[in-house]
Every structure is written in structure tokens, then in C-alpha cells.
Amino acid sequence: MVNETLKDFSKEQLIELIENYCKNWLAMDGVWFQSVEQKYGMDEAMEHDCAIWEKFTVIEAKRIKTFLNLPEEAGIEGLRQALKLRLYANINRDEIVTEGNSLIYRTTECRVQHARSSKGMDLHPCKAVGIIEYGLFAKTIDSRFSCECVSCYPDITDNTCHCAWKFTLNA
Questions:
Q1: What is the pLDDT of residues 98-118, one digit of tens each?
Q2: C-beta pairs of 99-105 under 8 Å, 24+ apart in sequence
Q3: 2 pLDDT more than 90
């Protein structure tokens, strides 16, 4: 089903609308998380966040994989393409570096962490969620991937980014 109204917009307007949709998605994600965090605490909010990302990241990866028409074993190039189409890619700044059978994905500016900082809140301890989110996203693109955290709050080892993840394609 296509929203016929979209056909009347220019390419530039549609790109702006996509960015707005991504911001709305992230705002909704943050609002529910903060609601649980305020009522039940960070541990409870993180438990639910992990459960949600376990499902959502696979849905997102499958849809991107289908959209890009990637093969079952999409490899490093397939993962690179897919990461660039995630909802986050439209609202965070990131960089991707490939090194042989590995890919490093770095979020250099994270909208979530900026929002929490600007509200005087503690940073989101996203490493636990990231392990689930990035690991399952990559495995959905190509089951041969393994994922490891290079740097992510609360275990920051690289102060030049908000988080960094290493994906290795195992033969």
C-alpha cells in the first residue's frame, strides 16, 4: 500500500521526511525507555531494551537485506551497505572502515547520548544492548559474522567516538 500523498513531494522533501520519520522513531524509543527507567530503574529499563532490540534488529536487517536484494551470504560489502540504511544512519554520524575480513563501525555522534547529556541525565549504558543489536543485525545479513564491542558506554576505550563495533567474517 502506497500513501498517494508521497507522490506529490520532491526528492528533497522525501529525504527530509525520512529524516523526520527516523527522529520520530528514536524519540518514541527514548520516551518508552525513559518511562520505564523513571518508574522501575535503569536495570529494568535495560532488560526490556535488550528484549526489544533482540526482535527489532532482526526485523530491520531482514527488510534492509530484502530491499538491497542481498544474497544469503552478503559478506563485508553487504553488511557495509546494510549498516548505511539503518534508521540510525539518518540521524547519527558514523564511519565504516573495512580491514580484510573485518569491518569496524563507529558512531562518531550519537543522538541518544547527546539528548541524555543535554537533559542532565546519565549516559545510556548501551553496550549490553549493542552486543545484541549489532551482533544479531550482522548475523541476519550474513550468519558467518561475529561481532565484538571495541568501545561503548560504560566501557569506553576510544574517546573519539560514542561507540565502535568490530564485525569479523568467519569462513
A1: 999 999 999 999 999 999 999
A2: 101/76, 101/168, 101/169, 101/170, 101/171, 102/76, 102/166, 102/167, 102/168, 102/169, 103/76, 103/79, 103/166, 103/167, 103/169, 104/150, 104/164, 104/165, 104/166, 104/167, 105/134, 105/164, 105/165, 105/167
A3: no
96 in Cβ contact with 84 (< 8 Å): yes
Let me know the angle formed at the C-alpha of 128 by 122 and 131, rounded to the nearest 5 degrees. Answer: 135
Count Cβ neighbours within 10 Å for each residue of 130-139 and write b for 16 or more, e otherwise: bbbbbbbbbb
Decide if 76 contacts 101 (C-beta within 8 A). Answer: yes
pTM over 0.90: yes
Does residue 1 have a pLDDT over 80? no
SS3 155: strand
pLDDT band, residue 74 (cuts 50/70/90): very high
Q: What are phi and psi of 149, to 5 degrees?
A: -80, 125
